[in-house]
Amino acid sequence: MKRTPPVKASSGDIPAPKECRAFSLIELLTVIALLAILAVFAAPATTNIMRANEINRAEQTLVQQLSTARQRAIARNRRVEVRFYKFINPDAVGSPPTFCAIQSFLIDENNKATPVGRITKLPTSVLINEVAANSSLLSVADKSSWDATTDPQISLPGVGTSYTAKAFQFRPDGSTSLDPTQMWFITVHAALAGATAAAPPSNFATIQVDPVSGAARSYRP
Questions:
Q1: Is residue 41 very low, low, confident or very high in pLDDT (cuts 50, 70, 90)?
Q2: What phi and psi, each to the nearest 5 degrees, are found at residue 30?
Q3: pLDDT for position 153
Q4: 3.30.160.20, 3.40.30.10, 3.55.40.10, 1.10.10.10: which CATH number matches 26-219?
């Protein structure tokens, strides 16, 4: 008796579907719990990295603005005034007034001040420390009086005239109006540390301005 050879499946045959096993409720809850634990441990590190990046941006912004103001004074052969603004940042709801912006003004032969660039704000999470020991540049004269003809108080976007300002000037030779016998600098750090902290937090940046040469350089801890 001859055996019948088994029939081979052709390439077009569709294999029988395999049974799919779903996750149980306990397995899903276990995975969610593990992800939540990882998120708790990762959150502080992520926050610190984001704050460090914001401080870096603020540091670079201030150095660039100060250097550009000095270069303008030399190129235009005119004095250039740098102003640090203190106001309630409309981008940080509920925050107190802080020094958080900078702007330059060209001073012509008639002492008239004209903006030479838009106001530049620091990142919302960063501020300039107000304590004189940390930011001596904020101890310069206030812009408390305004002259309607030569030095009118300008309106800032989203702020209007509800602000105060500190200012110093770069001269046409690149030097500054600052006292050459003192050191001049500003310190920026995360806003959560407070604007009046006697000592800045561990992560901060200090920008120093040489009163004689006008050069700006930054330091990090």
A1: low
A2: -65, -45
A3: 94
A4: 3.55.40.10
In the chain, the N- to C-terminal Cα span, in Å, equals 94
* CA angle at 104 for the pair 139 and 124, rounded to the nearest 5°: 75
CA 108/CA 118 separation, integer angstroms: 18
Asked whether the predicted pLDDT for residue 38 surpasses 80, the reply is no
The residue ranges of every structural domain in the chain are: 26-219
Residue 22 has a pLDDT of 63
User: Tokens in use for 10?
Assistant: 């052709």
pLDDT of residue 28: 76
pTM of the model: 0.78
> How far is residue 181's CA from residue 152's CA, in Å, rounded to a whole number?
31
Q: 89-111 burial, b for 16+ CB within 10 Å, e for fewer?
A: beeeeebebbbbbbbbbbbeeee
